[in-house]
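Minutes, project check-in
Item: structure for the 647-residue chain
Input as provided by the requester:
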Amino acid sequence: MTIALNKPKLDNLANEIWKSAERLRGKFKAYEYQNVILPMIVLRRLECVLLTWRAAKGAEIKASRPSIGDAKLAELVKGMERNPKQAPFGNATEWTLRKIYEEDHTLLEANFRAYLNGFSDNVQDIVEHFNYRAVVGQMVKNNRLAPILNQYKDLELGPDRLSNLEMGYIYEELLRRFSEQSGEEAGEHFTPREVIRLMVELLEIPIPERHVAIYDPACGTGGMLSVAKEHLLDRAATDEEKNRIEQLLTVHGQELQSANYAICRADLLIKNDSQAKVFLGNSLIPHVSGSREPGDQLAGKEDRFDYMLSNPPFGVTWGGKDGYEAEARKFESTRYRAGMPRTTDGALLFLQTMLAKMKPASQDKGGKGRSSNGGSRIAIIFNGSPLSNGDCGSGESEIRRWILENDWLDCIVMLPDQLFYNTGIFTYVWLLRNEKPKSHQGHVMIIDARKQFEKEPKSFGNKRNRISDLHRQWIETHYRDGWAPGYQAEDVKLFRTTDFAYHRVSVVFWQFDEHDLPATITEPYEKAFTAANLKKEQAFYDSDLSFELRVKVPEGTHRAGADETALTLSLAPKDNAAQKLKALLPEGATVLSARWTHRHYVQDDEYIPFDADGKPEEYIPAFLAREIAKPICGGSGCLDSHRGGIS
């Protein structure tokens, strides 16, 4: 069951934290608020965990040694804290946020910096990626360190008061407010936990009996990875199954934004998840040691994953002077060999990155799909752009074609709108797998789940709808049962992969006038009036053409005492345009303007469904004859043809 969230409680806490951001107004710019507040939240949450751990360890020692003195007890606990095998992290000092605030304020900065420096190396990594030591200097300069410490010194942020799920909502709500306050575009859309739960269950991740690896190339604050593991632990019926999950399941992620990466690392520390591996960097480009931006640190044949899930940022530009197009194109002949999408939307780069990390599929003799050591499954959230962007032959269309021809696309689930915090648009879950069972092969399921929601009791930003357990089960049931022969449901359709393929045929047909007769048109001739261009017009129109010219002639060759004269040129389809033009124009004459009369042809693209059982040379002409009632120009023919896109 999905854990019920006390949203009024979370709202109140988010509002309380937000007050500290408001205290920064006038001293910090709006986009800098999160640089101050988010690290302080993380530090206080880590401190709450550490204080609880110290109390628990002290109680354990006291129970076995009742006569131990306080000083000796504190020394023993501190020794255990320094041992990574006994404590996930520690702080070598005695400072807490409360003690720092209550000490002499002239020593506030020095004591707070000592507190930061006292943390163990794994926390130092988090502090460094927040760049918090530099921010502390700004806080001191602007006289804001004391009020911020006072705000957080007693705030109850420990896991015993606020679960990881609830803390995730707080992070996301604050990040949403920060992005709105600073006027940033909401390119990063944090994923509601009920949507992650749906994705995890559609992936059908089992309790592991061997090593199972899960991956997210845009892991943000780690929500996808955390929910995937929590879901498995919830399903574990015995301690033995829980132990298998802890020992055999590893989660892997990469995140580009330093603050999100730091929050994710802190969350993993609090959970003491030693099986998690998260890296800072851009998963879409090669990783080169010493480069200005770290790249994909999980690349190569040895880094393949059983299950992958992600909600990559929507509509993020990867080209231009601020992008990373040059670096991404280093993968053009390998990872992105199917095509490169437009530089204003890198969503399909994330999908190709995940497809490159699939384990090779191993089919058993019965063709029933996944064996014990082969194949991968992917769940990824997109907006509508990857479904339809790009015409036939474009990068996007060629990527879709590649996916369909490899028969990797398994299902697309159409989700309700207003599910996300920073956007109200409709979204889609794509399910892909390279180990389809026979019943799935050659087909794609479409599930219309846009009506499967209920209203949120209280909206979170743009999130006004939610998927309940009942709606999630509706989707899962249709996905599971919809492959059965003869299964019928109004909102579930099965398509052949070839149903999404098409031919694009450019045709030219003769426009008819109001009397339903073939039309001609007289209009200015905008091209350069050269023999080469006239030859092209003859080939295209394959009919008589006439031109009315206004010509400037050299002095001494003018007629009727004028420097300009009007001439007429008629061309039949077989005429030699160069000879007729030379004979018509005096030597040195210049064509000032021209009007021409020609058949009124219309050029258009027709998208013709691919017929897997037919021959293109037969069904394409039949389609054109059926759909276009007017004569098609015989000289133009089929100018271009491609197959393999989602139309």
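Outcome recorded: The chain has four domains: 7-177, 185-500, 501-519+600-647, 522-597.
No further action items on this chain.
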